[in-house]
């Protein structure tokens, strides 16, 4: 049988693994008697761990929230996953120091064989850039901003935003990250229209706002909405392209994130699309594989002409 201190740590580890355990399950898991479990639970409570007793047929014990974070007891796979994840955190400003501190604490107590494994994984596993579709630097979002948004969504609190040169009052519902960008899915007040708002473009008023009665989408619809809405309103640069092909053919060559396609006649359609820069937008439409005319903006027209001259020169024309 384990010594008392080791047994208490084992009990604490088991209680962290799932919400509720019966006394009999704990006794079997730790190979002790139910009476020992009761005594050990009392010892942990005396040490300040808020272990709650749950009554009823499905009752037992559970580790409740306390005034401080208890020691997290991770198995080997969990420890490796957390360490690798901390080393790969990107895209959120303001948490670099906290991330480094948490990683240092974890790596300090990792057993030698796990420390070697984490180092081996991070030294030998690589990945291409997450965002290969833009020559614009990826925006970083301050962790305090994400916390503010999450609190407002949880508490059903409206937000007042300065956005795109104007003021928006919105009911926030979800934060979606897609292609290294963060979007707030919200309903505009009082219009009632849904928007996918770039978080890095928004300034949130610190003043408390009134609560609202939520009218959410289905959970799976938020990401789909962001992908479709960004095509028409979420890019830094938007363009109108006339394509020498029917809309059904254009749609077969793109996904919903690329743009909105409308029929003009049996042989022509219009593509409304966008990107984070003129240069990458020109690449997008060049990959369409169909004849097209750039209607707007003027900057894209000029850039396509420039590319035409470069390609012609490269081909000896």
From TrEMBL:
InterPro entries in alphabetical order: CBASS_pafABC_assoc_protein (IPR051534), DeoR_HTH (IPR001034), HTH_11 (IPR013196), PafC-like (IPR028349), Tscrpt_reg_HTH_DeoR_CS (IPR018356), WH-like_DNA-bd_sf (IPR036388), WH_DNA-bd_sf (IPR036390), WYL_dom (IPR026881)
GO molecular function: DNA binding; DNA-binding transcription factor activity
SUPFAM superfamilies: Winged helix' DNA-binding domain (SSF46785)
Pfam families for the chain: HTH_11 (PF08279), WYL (PF13280)
Keyword Ribonucleoprotein: no
Record has Ribosomal protein as a keyword: no
Domain of life: Bacteria
Swiss-Prot/TrEMBL keywords: DNA-binding, Transcription, Transcription regulation
Limits of the HTH deoR-type domain: 4-63
Protein name listed in UniProt: YafY family transcriptional regulator
């Amino acid at each position: 049988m384990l010594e008392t201190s080791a047994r208490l740590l084992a009990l604490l580890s088991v209680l962290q693994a799932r919400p509720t355990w019966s006394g009999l399950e704990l006794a079997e898991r730790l190979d002790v008697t139910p009476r020992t479990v009761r005594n050990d639970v009392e010892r942990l409570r005396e040490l300040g761990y808020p272990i709650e007793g749950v009554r009823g047929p499905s009752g037992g014990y559970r580790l409740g929230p306390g005034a401080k974070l208890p020691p997290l007891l991770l198995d080997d796979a969990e420890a490796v996953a957390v360490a690798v994840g901390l080393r790969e955190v990107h895209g959120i400003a303001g948490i670099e120091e906290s991330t480094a501190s948490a990683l240092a604490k974890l790596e300090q107590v990792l057993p030698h064989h796990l420390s070697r494994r984490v180092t081996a994984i991070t030294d030998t596993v690589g990945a291409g850039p997450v965002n290969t579709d833009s020559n614009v630097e990826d925006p970083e979002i301050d962790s305090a901003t994400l916390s503010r948004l999450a609190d407002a969504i949880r508490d059903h609190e409206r937000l007042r935003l300065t956005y795109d040169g104007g003021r928006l009052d919105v009911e926030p519902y979800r934060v979606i990250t897609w292609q290294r960008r963060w979007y707030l899915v919200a309903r505009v007040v009082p219009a009632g229209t849904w928007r996918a708002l770039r978080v890095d473009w928004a300034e949130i008023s610190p003043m408390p706002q009134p609560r609202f009665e939520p009218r959410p989408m289905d959970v799976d619809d938020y990401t789909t909405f962001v992908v479709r809405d960004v095509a028409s309103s979420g890019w830094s640069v938007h363009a109108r392209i006339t394509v020498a092909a029917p809309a059904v053919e254009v749609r077969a060559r793109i996904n919903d994130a690329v743009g909105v396609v409308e029929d003009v006649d049996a042989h022509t359609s219009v593509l409304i699309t966008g990107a984070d820069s003129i240069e990458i937008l020109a690449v997008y439409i060049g990959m369409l594989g169909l004849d097209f005319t750039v209607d707007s903006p003027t900057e894209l027209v000029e850039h396509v002409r420039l590319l035409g001259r470069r390609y012609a020169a490269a081909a000896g024309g």
